[in-house]
Write a structure and sequence with these properties.
The structure holds two protein chains of two kinds.
Chain A lengths: L8 H17 L13 H7 L1 H11 L4 H10 L4 H12 L17 E6 L32 H14 L12 H7 L28 H9 L3 H13 L7 E15 L6 E19 L8 E10 L3 H20 L8 H5 L4 H10 L5 H17 L5
Antiparallel strand pairs in A: 1-2, 2-3, 3-4
Helix pairs in contact in A: 2-3, 2-4, 3-4, 3-5, 4-5, 8-10, 9-10
Chain B lengths: L1 H7 L11 H16 L5 E2 L13 H10 L5 E6 L6 H13 L4 E2 L8 E5 L12 E5 L13 H9 L4 H14 L10 E3 L4 E2 L18 E6 L4 E5 L5 E3 L32 E5 L5 E5 L2 H14 L5
Parallel strand pairs in B: 2-3, 2-4, 4-5, 5-8
Antiparallel strand pairs in B: 1-9, 6-7, 6-10, 8-9, 11-12
Helix pairs in contact in B: 2-3
Classes of the chains: A alpha+beta, B alpha/beta.
């Protein structure tokens, strides 16, 4: 009699990998025109997928994010996971000082607080006011027409000298005394969530870092609970900016800061209802901050709202799930949550056997048929 | 799969996949866990290329402890050949060149296991690494980690005992089937990972070091060798392991090897009848070999 049920695992795994690979390449069956998805095509034409994966993967490596998207066939949880697992084997080589986001090379910048802001509002690439009608003409796009679009747009684009920096909306409010002064902890070394476990209570930098690489949908769901009524942040988006942030690193020899490259980020600052100053000073608005790799506006806004909610929870005690640091921070990581949800598919024969034993014994005791 | 394709891309990984800093951190946490039996040591758990919940915590312990002369055994549900055990073993073989693997419990120096402690008693030269989904037994009565930490410090397990008591009032039985809360060295109560109650007595005064790794929850804890491990119970309601007696009160035997003192898996065959087999596949093979050796010899 053979050993039942759990033989042949190695073959089964190899078979699963082979049939997945078949699905990835199935288009090529009898279709001589079929081509593998080019990394560059993913990088450009599925850019928001790449944005999401670099953000949740927690490492700014768009090319590998595109590769992860390709091999996972577009599953964002899997792609971010593969990128994160690669990242976790890399040593930490250096630390950047806090980077100045007023120096971002902006592609988009808006404020919901003021009609006009110093430096001007700039809508940039956004679907916010687009009509969500299916563009049926894209169903069968001609390659020539496709190539012409970007060229034509650039030709019509007026040459404009953009300033190197745009002032932050918050700076104006702060100058007016409507915001709390910059915290004394600013500039301190940030908590590195990849090198230290979260032992509660955790500093704000650990909270921000955890949310910055959180799974977008998880973060949105908890932030939305706060927006709808399980919380009372009532934010105003003081500024949302998207652009390329120069990354400054100390030169290995001179120690002088040099620009090592730039990363596309989304940054959101919300202003929320004011609080009384405990030291007896004037009441001021409160602030929430969100920032993440890539162009991910919903994520940055959700993060800013949750940052405010968590600061409130830390100060006054949590009245809602979104104000509880443990609740928020331990449930938004995509790699953790998708892994655990998936693990239920693994065999649980032994524990289920134990469960059967308990239920049968309990049924016997309660006089029911076992 | 992931690591393999990266390797083909010329991106070689370190021995044991993790970088040396990560291994050192895990080893420091292990030392602390051994020094404070049953205490959950937080550590910065790394992402591994397999799912959280599939043994990433156990794997980080294994990869940090593994040396060139190691003989490793990986089991899941008691079996060396279940899909997840195969997957983890393949990953260890791929990232730890020179290390040998075995299915024989008697021959290995390091065992990574999910949900079972082998039936064959372990020895002082062996380390058992158990994969842990929920490191904290108090989570059933208190969701906040911060509050649980204080409760552990004060050895305040009253709410857990009340839960056991309520079970007895409601059902006449303690209903905890696996992950049975166990007090270590007279202080910390641990979640011994989802091993059946059958395996809990093996924790007590074990000759081998037993380590617990929770990757997703980022905790490491230990039952050092020859340490007291007592499942929570009451003087008039003792702790009981799974009952494998049939309706007539006879101990069921493994349908394959005939063993009557091992943990059994029950399943329904194609013909609809119920069958029982050893959960520990190596143990089952050992019993079969023994039976064959004695066959033909005078009884």
């Amino acid at each position: 009699m053979s050993y039942v049920a759990i033989k042949g695992g190695g073959q089964a795994i190899a078979g699963a990998a082979a049939v997945s690979e078949y699905l990835r390449t199935e288009e090529g069956l009898g279709n001589t025109g079929a081509e593998p998805l080019a990394i560059d095509a993913i990088l450009h034409q599925l850019r928001h997928l790449v944005d999401r994966v670099v953000s949740e993967g927690g490492v700014y490596y768009p090319r590998f994010a595109a590769l992860a998207i390709k091999q996972s066939m577009g599953d964002t949880l899997e792609a971010a996971f593969a990128l994160r697992a690669w990242r976790s084997t890399r040593p930490r080589l250096s630390e950047t000082p806090p980077l100045d986001t007023s120096r971002m090379r902006l592609i988009r910048r808006i404020s919901a607080a003021f009609k006009d802001i110093p430096g001007g509002q700039m809508l940039g690439p956004t679907p916010d006011y687009a009509l969500r009608l299916l563009r049926l003409e894209l169903m069968d796009e001609s390659p020539d027409a496709f190539r012409a679009v970007a060229r034509n747009w650039l030709e019509k684009c007026p040459e404009a000298e953009l300033p190197d920096t745009f002032p932050k909306v918050l700076d104006a409010l702060r100058a007016e005394g409507l915001l709390p002064p910059v915290s004394a902890t600013r500039g301190q070394t940030a908590f590195d969530i990849t090198r230290e476990p979260l032992v509660f209570p955790v500093p704000r930098s650990a909270q921000l870092a955890t949310m910055a690489r959180a799974e977008t949908g998880s973060l949105l769901a908890i932030a939305y609970s706060n927006m709808r009524g399980y919380g009372d942040v009532h934010p105003t988006v003081a500024e949302l900016r998207v652009g390329y942030l120069p990354v400054m690193l100390p030169h290995p020899v001179t120690g002088e800061l040099v620009e090592a490259g730039e990363v596309l980020i989304t940054e959101c600052e919300v202003v929320a209802m004011y609080e009384a100053d405990e030291a007896g000073g004037k009441p001021v608005f409160t602030i929430g901050y969100g920032a993440c790799f890539g162009h991910n506006e919903v994520k940055a806004i959700s993060m800013a709202i949750l940052d405010r909610a968590l600061q409130k929870g830390m100060k006054d005690g949590a009245n809602n799930p979104s104000e509880d640091p443990e609740f928020v921070l331990l449930h938004v990581d995509g790699v953790d949550s998708m892994g655990f949800a998936s693990h239920y598919k693994m065999p649980h024969y032994v524990t289920f056997q134990s469960d059967l034993d308990r239920l049968r014994t309990t049924q016997q005791k309660s006089g029911e048929p076992a | 799969m992931n690591a393999m394709s990266h390797n083909q891309a010329g991106n070689a990984y370190n021995f044991g996949f993790l970088d040396e800093y990560a291994k050192k951190e895990v080893r420091r946490a292990i030392l602390k866990a051994i020094a404070i039996p049953g205490y959950q040591v937080p550590y910065a758990s790394r992402e591994m290329p397999m799912g959280r919940g599939f043994g990433t915590g156990g794997l980080q312990l294994t990869l940090s402890l593994i040396g060139p002369n190691e003989v490793v055994k990986v089991i899941d549900q008691g079996s060396d050949d279940s899909v997840n055990a195969v997957n983890l073993r393949r990953f260890i073989e791929m990232t730890c060149p020179g290390v040998s693997t075995t299915t024989a419990t008697a021959e290995c120096t390091l065992i990574q296991s999910r949900h079972r402690i082998p039936e064959l008693p372990l020895t002082a030269r062996q380390i058992l690494v158990l994969q842990v989904p929920y490191p904290d037994p108090l989570v059933v009565v208190e969701p906040s980690e911060d509050k649980r930490k204080t409760m552990h410090g004060e050895a305040d397990y009253s709410r857990l005992l009340v839960k056991l008591y309520e079970d007895i009032v409601k059902f006449g039985e303690i209903t905890i089937s696996h992950r049975y809360p166990t007090r270590i060295n007279g202080h910390y109560v641990i979640d011994p990972s989802p091993i059946p109650r059958w395996d809990v007595p093996k924790l007590n005064d074990s000759a081998a070091l037993i380590l617990f790794g929770a990757g997703r929850e980022k905790k490491i804890y230990a039952v050092p060798p020859h340490t007291k491990a007592e499942p929570l119970a009451f003087s008039d309601v003792p702790f009981r392991v799974e009952d494998f007696r049939d309706e007539q009160g006879r101990r069921r035997a493994c349908a394959r090897c005939g063993c009557v003192d091992s943990f059994l898996d029950e399943f329904v065959t194609d013909s609809g009848s119920k069958t029982y087999q050893c959960s520990d596949s190596d143990w089952c093979d050992m019993q079969l070999r023994k039976a064959r050796q004695t066959q033909g010899e005078p009884a």
